[in-house]
Amino acid sequence: MDLLLKNHKGQFMERVNFPLDATVDDFKTFFYEKHRFYPERQRWTVNSITGPRLTGRKLSDNGVVDGTSLYFKDLGVQISWRLVFFIEYLGPLFILPLLYFFPSFFYKPEPLIRYCSQKCGFIMLMFHFLKREFETFFVHRFSKETMPIKNLFTNCFHYWVLCAVGIGYYLFHPHYRPVLFFTRGAEKIVLFVLFFVFQFMTFMTHVTLCRLRPKGTTVRGIPKSWGFQYVSCANYFWELLIWVDIALFVNTLTGYFFAFAVLLILASWAKKKHKKYLKEFPDYPKDRKALIPFLF
């Protein structure tokens, strides 16, 4: 069958011939060998620039027949999602210990007293990112293999600068003093314990999502339990509570700012995923919210 290849502006590139049983991988490999855009950089749509994306196993599964026009867009240099997660979580694991153990490099030399909030805050932050690294390699299964490398800098800024530097610098500052309202021992203990409860709940939601997606596939299912009976994105809900807990525990403006930023980001993601669930599964529970039980 003859196929017409066009660029993302609709300009004609070339006419090629493929057998009727050709696969999408065959097509992308052919294009790579001729034009040097490796398959992960290629995005193809069928019959129009805004048409359905070329996915699946065979070209014919996408409605591709003789005379079909395929539109190409270069997605730019790509990086694997797993590597992105590894890098963005790795930054805080270096930055936080530097601020905590080597204060003389970042603050004026003066007598240093480490308060419980600082010690426990350090433990909480380090545990969070170590756990996230573990999940990256042993739990997460990604729906997409790669993302544009330019997005890596945004992700790293979020965790390296806003979180590690923003929270860590003021939390470990020699002038840091716990605010009186949150210095009661019982309150600190409750927040510290809740932090690990939320971590466990987050881990279990990630395991639940992992089990719904067979390895090497992009299959999605309807998650249940561990909070999913109330919201579509229970993993986001527990993640949000983790950062609210940390903000209350360390009690710095940067901590509250970061928690608010997390809320805005997760709310946006949850809304999109919730709509996708409703569209994909006709029997999806209609009483579930997107992020916050009974509210949103």
Automatic annotation (TrEMBL):
Family: Belongs to the steroid 5-alpha reductase family.
Stretches that traverse the bilayer: 83-106, 112-130, 151-169, 189-209, 230-247, 253-270
GO cellular component: endoplasmic reticulum membrane
Keywords per UniProt: Lipid biosynthesis, Lipid metabolism, Membrane, NADP, Oxidoreductase, Transmembrane, Transmembrane helix
One GO term of the biological process aspect: very long-chain fatty acid biosynthetic process
Cellular localisation: Endoplasmic reticulum membrane
Keyword NADP tagged: yes
Organism this protein belongs to: Theileria annulata
Membrane topology type: Multi-pass membrane protein
Pfam families reported for this sequence: Steroid_dh
Domain 3-oxo-5-alpha-steroid 4-dehydrogenase C-terminal: 146-296
Protein name, as recorded: Synaptic glycoprotein sc2, putative
GO molecular function: oxidoreductase activity, acting on the CH-CH group of donors
